């Protein structure tokens, strides 16, 4: 399985202190926001990144260039747009891309880049497609600070899609905006930034508090109109209307 998709599928559980002979290291790691760096052909590693999306100037990486990318990034999973050269862990496919062009080996993750302006029916249809995650790529003011309007649009997408959702963000995204996206239930952020900025964002993500569990709304129980005979007998008889005495 794709390392990136496996990261998304990790059980959300706090790394709490265990008892007995079990150490804290044996507990499942806590789920956190994934950090995906976006770059051209990388000249160096990206410390702190959970994955790297390679977007070279040319349409596709040659086999030799793909080997160099793998050697440069080491154990960090990486992927490309619209295709998965040898060694790639995932690919991001566009809405206009051909379904036949997506990898079918089962080991390469597939992220669908979608428009947040799609109607609800199309957004829900993503849940039935053979993709592993979605990238909400075109929300309003994507390059600027997070506004309530944009957060509402993104949250709407998040509520309709049951698969992991990644949000592209600006290089200078604030710590408060990172926390807002985490609290809103998103699974990762994607950012084009140098290695130093990626390392700083990794520290911001590591410092985020555990995601709060949303409270379930309680619904009022409304009594049914079709009461049983026993219930009907227990109800007091309705007193006759005073107007009935004149009839």
Topology:
Blueprint: H1 3-8, E1 34-39, E2 51-54, H2 63-73, E3 78-81, E4 90-94, E5 109-114, H3 120-125, E6 133-136, H4 148-160, E7 165-168, H5 175-183, E8 188-192, H6 195-206, H7 229-234
Parallel strand pairs: 1-2, 1-8, 2-3, 3-4, 4-5, 5-6, 6-7, 7-8
Description:
- The protein has about 250 residues and is α/β, with parallel strands linked by helices.
- It has one domain (about 5-220): TIM Barrel (Alpha-Beta Barrel).
- It has 7 helices and 8 strands, in the order αββαβββαβαβαβαα.
- It has helices at about 5-10, 65-75, 120-125, 150-160, 175-185, 195-205, 230-235; strands at about 35-40, 50-55, 80, 90-95, 110-115, 135, 165-170, 190.
- An 8-stranded parallel beta barrel has the order 1-2-3-4-5-6-7-8, surrounded by 4 helices.
- Residues about 10-30 have low confidence and may be disordered.
Reading the helices and strands in chain order gives: HEEHEEEHEHEHEHH
Return residue spans where pLDDT drops below 50 for at least 5 consecutive residues: 11-29
Q: What would CATH call the class?
A: Alpha Beta
CATH fourth-tier homologous superfamily: Aldolase class I
Q: What is the total number of structural domains?
A: 1
Tell me the span between the first and last alpha carbons: 83 Å
Number of helices: 7
Overall pLDDT confidence = 81
Largest sheet: spatial strand order:
1-2-3-4-5-6-7-8
CATH topology: TIM Barrel
Shape: globular
CATH architecture: Alpha-Beta Barrel
Rg value: 26 Å
Number of strands: 8
SSE class: alpha/beta
Helical residue percent? 25-40%
Strand percentage: 15-25%
Strand count, sense and closure of the main sheet?
A: 8 strands, parallel, barrel
